[in-house]
Amino acid sequence: MTHSPETAEALRAAAPYDLLETVRDLLAASHGAVLVDLFLADYGLTALNPLEAADRETAPAGDPPHPVPIHHGPHGRSFGSQEPYAHTDRPGGPVDHYLPVTVRGERLGVLTVRLPADRSTREAAEALMRTADILGHAILVAERDTDLYRRARRTSRLTLAAEMQWHLLPARACSGEEYAIGAQLEPAYAIHGDNYDWAADRDELTLSVTNGMGDGIQASLLTHLAVNALRNARRAGIPLADQAALADQALYEQHRGAAHVSTLLMRFELSTGRTQIVDAGSPQLWRRRQRSVERIEVDAQLPLGMFEETHYVAQELQVLPGDRLLVVSDGVFDATSPRGDLYGERALARAIHATSLLPAANVPRAVLRALAEFREADTIDDALVLCLDWFGRPNAPGR
């Protein structure tokens, strides 16, 4: 049986583009696996794409696998539930194991392994789960040195602006003891200026949602400058309001007020749930507390880069265990239907209610699907949804 240290060592030694082939060899030797495939979630969270779509050299004998729906079938069942799933077509026949590949809440895809019936034991299933976990971490490291896994995540070509935006993002989901985060951008393959960022330290979590004005490359370049200016200030240990001020100065120095960025900054104290907020533009903040959904009104301050040396003030908010916060860009709440109806706060509140039982990682895509139905189109304008579920610590206020 494959032991986790041996698997980790083998994947560390493998070339960055040979991780799947290495796993195939390991599982064939240790469990008699007759088929091993890796499916990665695409940027739009609509399909699980086989790695062979990007690298035919790793394809097994026979017909190569095809993309599968992300919300249906055994692959989608494992991906959506984040639980392993086993299936066989007949008693005594080979067993297909579907295993979520996830790293710190970021759902990368699904590893599928076919085992002979006599080798498909509970111990084997547990070993396969450990392998999937190790593979996920190895993929994140390997992405520094190969484009293979990023190529496999796309069902069509990204625009240059979208390529820049996805490269800037931290991930689509993240989780810790105190919180779980999910976020999604649309249209995934042609996004312009919307972006989000987060960073967790021992004592605090910082989130930002930004929207650079304009379209295409100019909006993406503007957002890049803003996000990196905010990161630079954050990593220097500067208070939240001063982070906004320094990013404001960087943007004004470059564009002299001709371009600006709307931003919502939040810093959460992990031990207490005390939160600081700087609203510098259009993103809206919503909260679901128990059965109540409401928009959190924050004093609107000037977008970053609009004027020289703008002074920003952080406001206070207390989040409680069980709270869900959503941040949405203007591409959501300002969307209109083909008849000219505004999506607005009422429809957004309904969407938040409708997704109450979903985990944070699933909420943004579900809200954006509801928005697409309202617009009666498969694509929507530049839009972003970020969801944060707050669990808090055992001794936090509200426990």
UniProtKB/TrEMBL annotation:
Molecular-function GO term, any one: phosphatase activity
Protein name: Phosphatase
SUPFAM superfamilies: PP2C-like
Highest taxon listed in the record's lineage: Bacteria
One Pfam family of this chain: SpoIIE
Residue stretches making up the PPM-type phosphatase domain: 176-390
UniProt keyword annotations, A-Z: Hydrolase
Ranges for region Disordered: 56-91
